C-alpha cells in the first residue's frame, strides 16, 4: 500500500521544514509527500521546494480548500491511503507511517487523539492504536487518516466553508453516513461517539493559538446548516470559477487535471464554426474489491489530457476512389493510399492495385468483382454495422454538417446497413429524402469523385459537438410529458433476462427513483419523450448512445463498464457527453462469464455508487 502524506500549512515555515525532515527520517516505508500551502507570506512554499518537496500553493482560501489541494494530488499519485497533518503536529516515532496506513485500511477514516489520551480512554475505551482506537465524542482535526475507498465514496471537503470551523465535522459526518470510521467499528459504541482516534506517533509542536475569529466561525456554522443532508459525494470546488482555479493550482505543480476519483476533460473549439466545445467532468469510480480501473493507464497516468479534436469535416476529395462494400473502407487508387482504416470484417485484397497497407496490417484483394459506382458519391459512414454508436457519433453528425454546407446535392450517400429505427430517426431529422445507398458486400465500387472525411478520423473517434447539439435540438419534443420519470435505467429485456438477479436489481433501482426504459421496445418518438426530461440515465456500456443524445444538457449519465474495457469503449461515451455538456460517471464492474450478461453487477456496491453520485 502506498501512503500519501500531506502537510497542511499557513505561515509556519519553520514547522513545515521540521515536519518534512521528520517524515523523511522516521517513515518505515517510502511515502508520497506533498505540502499544501494556503497563501503563506513567510516563504513556506519556496523553502519546501528548496528541500525537493512537491508544493501546491495558492491564495488564502481556508482549511477546506487547502486539504483538498493535498487530497487531489495524492489521489492522482495513486495513493491507497492518505494522512493529512496540520503544521502543529510532527512525527516523533520511527515507523509512525505504518500505524496510520493500517488504521486507514481498517477503519477508512481515523483522526489523531490529542492531549491526554488516558483521560479520553477512561470515558470511551480504546488504546489509541490502529487495532484498538480511542472512541471519542470530539472531532479532532489535527491529523486525518483516510482510505481511497472512503474518498471515492464521500469525495472532498466542501469548498463553501471559508476559514476555520465546521468543515472537518461536516466531512466526517458524510464519512459516517457512508459507513466509515466510527460507523465501521464492530463494537456497540455510545451514541455520542463520533470519531476513532489514534496516537500514530505524532506529537504536538508549540501552539501559537491560531484559529478563526467569531465572525468566521459563525459564518461556517451557517454554511454547515445549509449543506447538511446534501449529496454524499462533494467535488473539491463549487462552480466553474472555483474548478478552473483549483485545477490551475494543480497544473503548476505538474499534476495532470485528474485523479481516479474525478477527471476534467480539456477540449478544443471546432474550427469549422469557432464554437467552443462544452466541457464535461468524468467521475471515475471503482468500488468493487479487486477490480482494476481500466482508465488508470489510459487516462489517469497521462501527463496531459488528449483534446477532443476538431469536427469531422468533409475535407478529402478523391478522384478515382474505391469503396469496399463490406466495411465502407475508402481507398485512393491513384495515390495508392488507404484513406480510412476502420478494421474490415474480413481481409480485403488490394495488393494487385498497388495500394499501401493500412495501419492494421497488409490488405488483400476481395474475391468479388469491381463495380462502377457512378460519377460522384459522399461517404458518410466509417464503421460497419457492428460498431456501437457509429450511427449517432459519426453518420448523423456528418449528414447534418454536409447538408448545412450544401455538400450533398443529388449525390448518393454511402452508409452502412441501417435498422428500421435508424431510418425513422433520419426521417425525424428531415434527412429521410436523401439517396442513401449501402454498397454491395465483397465488391469494390469505383467512383469518379468521392467526398469523404479525412484520414485518421476513425482512429481519433472524433465527434462534431455542434452537430450533436443541433441533433438533440432538432429531436427535442415541443413539450416533454411531465409525468414521465426523471431517472431512467436504459436496458434491453433480452439482455436483462440473462441476469439471475434482475428482480433484485430492479427493486434496488426503484428505491433510488429509477424506472426501466426498455430500449428494444421503444419507438423513436417514445425514446424522445422518455429521455427529454431525464436528469439521470443508468446505462450498461454499449447500446445506450441514443438515450444520452436525447437527454438534456446537465443530465448525469452513469455508465456501467466492464473491467478491461478498451480505450475506444471508454472514450465513446465520454466523447458524446463532452459534446452534449452532460456529466458522465463510469463505474467499473466485473466482467461476467462467457455466455452470460456483459457484466456482473454487485448490488451492494451499485447501491453505494448511486448514493455517492445522486444522494
In short:
With 615 residues, the chain is α/β, with parallel strands linked by helices. The protein folds into three domains: 3-227, Spore Coat Polysaccharide Biosynthesis Protein SpsA, Chain A (Alpha-Beta Complex); 256-311 and 477-615, 3-Layer(aba) Sandwich (Rossmann fold), CATH 3.40.50; 316-461, no CATH class.
Task: Tag the structure with descriptive keywords.
615 residues; alpha/beta; Spore Coat Polysaccharide Biosynthesis Protein SpsA, Chain A; Rossmann fold; 3 domains; eight-stranded mixed β-sheet; 20 helices; 33% helix; Nucleotide-diphossugar_trans; Glyco_trans_2-like; Glycosyltransferase 2-like domain-containing protein
Please specify the SSE layout and strand pairing.
Blueprint: E1 3-9, H1 13-26, E2 31-38, H2 44-50, E3 54-58, H3 63-76, E4 81-86, E5 89-91, H4 96-107, E6 109-112, H5 117-124, E7 134-136, E8 143-147, H6 148-154, H7 167-177, E9 195-198, E10 202-204, H8 214-227, H9 239-252, E11 262-265, E12 269-270, E13 275-276, E14 280-285, H10 295-300, E15 316-324, E16 329-332, E17 337-338, E18 370-379, H11 390-404, E19 413-414, H12 420-428, E20 436-437, E21 444-452, H13 457-460, H14 465-475, E22 487-491, H15 493-496, H16 502-511, E23 514-518, H17 524-531, E24 536-540, H18 545-550, E25 556-562, H19 567-580, E26 583-591, E27 599-600, H20 603-614
Parallel strand pairs: 1-2, 1-4, 2-3, 6-9, 14-26, 18-19, 18-21, 19-20, 22-23, 22-24, 24-25, 25-26
Antiparallel strand pairs: 4-8, 5-10, 6-8, 7-9, 11-14, 12-13, 15-16, 15-21, 16-17, 26-27
Amino acid at each position: 500500500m502506498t501512503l500519501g502524506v500531506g502537510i497542511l500549512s499557513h505561515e509556519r515555515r519553520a514547522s513545515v521544514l521540521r515536519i518534512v525532515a521528520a517524515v523523511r527520517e522516521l517513515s518505515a516505508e517510502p511515502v508520497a509527500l506533498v505540502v499544501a500551502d494556503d497563501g503563506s507570506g513567510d516563504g513556506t512554499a519556496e523553502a519546501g521546494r528548496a528541500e525537493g518537496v512537491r508544493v501546491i500553493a495558492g491564495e488564502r482560501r481556508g482549511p477546506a480548500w487547502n486539504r483538498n489541494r493535498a487530497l487531489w494530488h495524492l489521489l492522482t499519485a495513486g495513493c491507497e491511503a492518505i494522512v493529512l497533518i496540520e503544521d502543529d503536529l510532527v512525527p516523533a516515532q520511527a515507523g509512525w507511517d505504518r500505524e496510520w496506513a493500517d488504521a486507514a485500511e481498517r477503519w477508512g477514516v481515523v483522526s489523531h487523539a490529542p492531549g491526554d489520551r488516558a483521560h479520553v480512554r477512561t470515558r470511551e475505551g480504546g488504546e489509541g492504536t490502529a487495532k484498538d482506537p480511542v472512541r471519542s465524542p470530539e472531532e479532532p482535526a489535527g491529523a486525518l487518516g483516510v482510505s481511497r475507498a472512503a474518498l471515492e465514496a464521500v469525495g472532498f471537503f466542501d469548498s463553501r466553508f471559508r476559514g476555520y470551523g465546521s468543515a472537518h465535522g461536516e466531512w466526517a459526518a458524510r464519512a459516517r453516513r457512508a459507513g466509515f470510521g466510527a460507523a465501521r467499528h464492530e463494537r456497540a459504541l455510545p451514541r455520542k461517539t463520533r470519531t476513532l482516534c489514534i496516537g500514530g506517533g505524532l506529537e504536538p509542536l508549540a501552539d501559537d493559538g491560531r484559529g478563526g475569529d467569531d465572525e468566521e466561525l459563525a459564518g461556517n456554522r451557517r454554511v454547515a446548516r445549509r449543506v447538511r443532508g446534501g449529496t454524499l459525494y462533494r467535488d473539491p470546488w463549487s462552480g466553474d470559477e472555483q474548478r478552473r482555479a483549483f485545477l490551475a493550482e494543480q497544473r503548476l505543480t505538474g499534476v495532470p487535471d485528474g485523479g481516479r476519483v474525478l477527471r476534467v476533460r480539456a477540449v478544443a473549439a471546432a474550427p469549422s464554426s469557432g464554437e467552443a466545445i462544452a466541457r464535461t467532468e468524468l467521475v471515475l469510480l471503482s468500488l468493487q474489491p479487486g477490480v482494476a480501473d481500466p482508465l488508470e493507464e489510459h487516462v489517469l497516468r497521462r501527463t496531459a489530457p488528449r483534446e477532443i479534436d476538431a469536427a469531422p469535416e468533409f475535407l478529402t476529395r478523391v478522384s478515382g476512389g474505391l469503396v469496399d462494400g463490406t466495411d465502407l473502407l475508402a481507398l485512393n487508387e491513384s495515390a495508392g493510399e488507404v484513406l480510412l482504416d476502420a478494421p474490415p470484417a474480413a481481409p480485403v485484397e488490394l495488393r494487385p492495385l498497388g495500394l499501401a497497407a493500412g495501419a492494421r496490417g497488409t490488405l488483400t484483394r476481395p474475391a468479388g468483382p469491381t463495380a462502377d459506382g457512378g460519377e460522384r458519391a459522399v461517404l458518410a459512414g466509417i464503421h460497419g454495422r457492428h460498431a456501437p454508436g457509429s450511427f449517432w457519433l459519426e453518420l448523423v453528425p456528418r449528414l447534418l454538417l454536409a447538408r448545412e454546407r450544401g455538400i450533398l446535392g443529388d449525390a448518393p450517400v454511402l452508409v452502412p446497413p441501417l435498422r428500421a429505427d435508424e431510418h425513422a430517426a433520419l426521417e425525424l431529422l428531415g434527412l429521410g429524402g436523401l439517396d442513401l445507398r449501402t454498397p454491395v458486400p465483397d465488391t469494390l465500387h469505383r467512383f469518379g469523385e468521392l467526398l469523404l472525411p479525412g484520414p485518421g478520423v476513425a482512429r481519433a473517434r472524433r465527434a462534431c459537438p455542434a452537430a450533436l447539439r443541433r441533433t438533440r435540438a432538432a429531436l427535442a419534443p415541443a413539450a416533454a410529458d411531465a409525468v414521465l420519470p426523471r431517472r431512467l435505467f436504459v436496458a434491453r429485456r433480452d439482455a436483462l433476462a440473462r441476469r439471475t438477479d434482475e428482480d433484485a436489481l430492479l427493486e434496488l433501482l426503484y428505491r433510488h427513483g429509477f424506472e426501466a426504459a426498455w430500449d428494444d421496445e421503444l419507438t423513436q418518438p417514445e425514446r424522445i419523450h422518455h429521455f427529454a426530461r431525464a436528469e439521470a440515465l443508468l446505462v450498461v456500456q454499449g447500446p445506450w448512445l441514443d438515450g444520452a443524445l436525447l437527454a438534456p444538457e446537465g443530465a448525469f449519465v452513469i455508465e456501467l463498464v466492464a473491467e478491461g474495457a478498451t480505450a475506444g469503449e471508454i472514450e465513446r461515451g465520454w466523447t458524446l457527453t463532452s459534446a452534449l455538456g452532460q456529466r458522465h460517471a463510469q463505474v467499473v464492474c466485473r466482467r461476467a462469464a462467457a455466455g452470460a450478461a456483459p457484466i456482473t453487477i454487485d448490488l451492494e456496491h451499485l447501491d453505494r455508487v448511486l448514493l455517492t453520485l445522486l444522494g
